[in-house]
Amino acid sequence: MVLIRSVLLALLGASSALSNPVAELGSIDIEARRPVPNSELLIRDSTPNSSGYKDGYYYSFWSDGLGSVNYTNGRGGSYAITWSGPCSTIGGKGWNPGRAKKFHYSADYRTNGNSILEVYGWTTDPLVEYRIVENFGSYNPGSVAQIKGKHIADGSEYTVGNVTRYNQPSIQGTKTYQQIWSVRRNKRRNGTISLSDHFDAWKKFNLTLGRHNYQLFALEAYFSSGSVNVTLW
């Protein structure tokens, strides 16, 4: 957990880092962490990290071992997360490998502070980490990106940007890779996300995906509190 420790030290020691915490959150990779045995309920009293398959869905969950975080795998495409305190966490359900499909979701999302409700995924060749943000808390995560433009999908405008992550943890170990963001203007807690529309728009901005690895509808949180109950289909 060298990365997380260094991030926390930077946040505690520099006000500039406190003003932009999601920039560091973006460096977290679920799959790069050491797994523990799968369970229906993962309660943080150490550093939980689990991924696998349940009821036809792929799930993955990671947290840094600080604060209080509970992740519960429900039936089918449902899951729940509660979190509070000085924690970094990300988890959700989806597919592995991902694909250009439609995500249908409903979420009871309550947040006090910095968190994101999003599609989260990776590709290889090229190595890309991507997010389609449907809702967020106190901080707009798209602020970390170099803006490439805007496009319309699923009834709203999305702002598209990218960031180059240098020598950061990834699904292939420590690598330099592109991070792509699409942030929805009109926040929502339920709806349909047409991934093909986003992927096609990214191509127009010369943002290229590779071969799909895992793909989640996820909750990502950093130094905040809240709860989410998600059903995905």
Automatic annotation (TrEMBL):
It catalyses: Endohydrolysis of (1->4)-beta-D-xylosidic linkages in xylans. Residues 45-233 form the GH11 domain. GO terms for biological process: xylan catabolic process. Keywords: Carbohydrate metabolism, Glycosidase, Hydrolase, Polysaccharide degradation, Signal, Xylan degradation. Its EC number is 3.2.1.8. PROSITE patterns: GH11_3. The keyword tRNA processing does not apply. The keyword Plastid does not apply. Pathway: Glycan degradation; xylan degradation. Residues 1-17 form the signal peptide. GO terms for molecular function: endo-1,4-beta-xylanase activity. The active site is at residues 129, 220. PANTHER family: ENDO-1,4-BETA-XYLANASE A-RELATED. Belongs to the glycosyl hydrolase 11 (cellulase G) family. This is Endo-1,4-beta-xylanase. It comes from Serendipita indica (strain DSM 11827) (Root endophyte fungus).
